[in-house]
Structures are given as C-alpha cells and as structure tokens.
Amino acid sequence: MKSLFLGTAALALTATMGLADTVRLGTEGAYPPYNFLNDAGEVDGFERELGDELCKRAELTCEWVTNDWDSIIPNLLSGNYDAIIAGMSITDERKEVVNFTQGYTRPSPSAYAALSDDVDLEGGVIAAQASTIQSSHVASTGATLVEFPNPDETVAAVNAGEVDAVMADKDFLIPIVNETELQFVGEDVFLGDGIGMAFRQSDDELRNKFDAAIASMKEDGSLNALLDKWEIEGKF
Questions:
Q1: Helical (H) or strand (E) element with 189
Q2: Which of 101, 103, 108, 198 has its CA 20 to 30 A from that of 55?
Q3: DSSP letter string over 28-52?
C-alpha cells in the first residue's frame, strides 16, 4: 500500500467543496491492479470499479482525474479534485492533513523482489517508489534507498542492475514475478492500516457518503467479490 505524505499542510487552508454536482475522483493511473490506464487511455482496475460502484450507491455523479503520485495530496488540498482513491494507505502522518474513510482493504503485505535470492536486504541498495510506506520502511532498515517517481521505474532499476531489489505492494509485484525473471526474496512485511479514500478535512459530508457506501459493500459481500476479481489480498 502506498503511504507516507511528506509535508505541505499549508495547502489545506482554503480548498472546500460542499457537495458539488460532479465529484472528481483523483487517482494515479499507474499502479495495477489498483489503478491503471487501459489501451483506450481510460482509468481502469480495482479502484475504477470500486469508485464507480461507491458513486452509484452514494447517488453521486463522478468523474475521474489522474495525477502523479508525488503531488496527489497537495492537488487534493488545492481543489483539483474532491477525493483520492489511489491505493493510498491510511497512516497517522497523513491523518494530520487529510481525513480517510474506513479501509476498503485490510493491510496487505509488502514484499521484496530481486533477480537473485542472495540479496542483502538490510545492507544492499533497494528501490521503492518515492513517498510510500515501502520507501520509509527501507530507509529504516539501514539499506541504501533509491527512490523513483513511479513503480515501473523501480522494477526497471532492478532489471538494469542499478539496484539489488525492489520493495512494493505484493499485489503489484505478483504478476511481474510471474512473468519475468524477478523472484520474491525475504519475508513479507505488513505496513499501514489498510487502504482508504482521502478527503480534505473540510469535506466530512462527502466523506461520510462514501464511508457509508463502503460499509454497505462490506455488508453485502460485494467488496470481497471485487477484491477476489482483481486478486487483491486484504478481504474482510
């Protein structure tokens, strides 16, 4: 799960929304199976299906907006969209600047992948996407952290021999490991408090509508069915 937000609380000063006619959902569009752009250039993946269903249950008209990961919270706070649904882990640090719904996944594992099983995970060079729980964890282990702006670049760095391993959500790495020479190494690591939608702190009315919709999907089993469809761990 992606996580840590580093700074710019000042952007939270003025952005408010009430309940607009169209709710704009911000996502990255680069983190399968959670969210990605399909061949038609449209947002796709688990969170696209989830977000569309939540909007239906909340009786809201929604549109999708893509944004680079490293500025996804600042652009929420400045009003470029109304909610984030982007594989974002719920963390205490983020709660200082945004409000979350309840999680729509339980905490799922992060994992290391490398070309060899003899990688030194605590003393080697490890790639992770910038401003994530994984990058924070790698830094805490004593390994040399190399950050990249998007997840595909972390994998490319391993394949190019620039780093010894990559750490990311295991759900993201599984298809890559299955289709390439990369292999899982070390133990899975559980980080964060699950994934939720993030909102400006002034938008509790909107957040509550989505929170109720998530709760209804948990109650009727449709959320677990969607997690199964996209082969994402963390069912309820």
A1: strand 183-190
A2: 108
A3: -SEETTTEEE-TTS-EESHHHHHHH
- Nearest to residue 116, comparing CAs of 186, 52, 21? 186
Q: What type of residue is 227?
A: L
Q: Cβ contacts of residue 45 below 8 Å, gap of 6+?
A: 32, 33, 34, 35, 36, 230
- 201 in the same domain as 168: no
- Whether 69 and 178 share a structural domain: no
pLDDT digits (tens, 9 = 90+) for 212-236: 999 999 999 999 999 999 999 888 9
Bridge-based pairing state of the strands 125-129 and 144-148: parallel
Q: Would you say 215 and 54 are in contact if contact means Cβ atoms under 8 Å apart?
A: no
Q: Looking at the structure, do residues 219 and 186 belong to the same domain, yes or no?
A: no
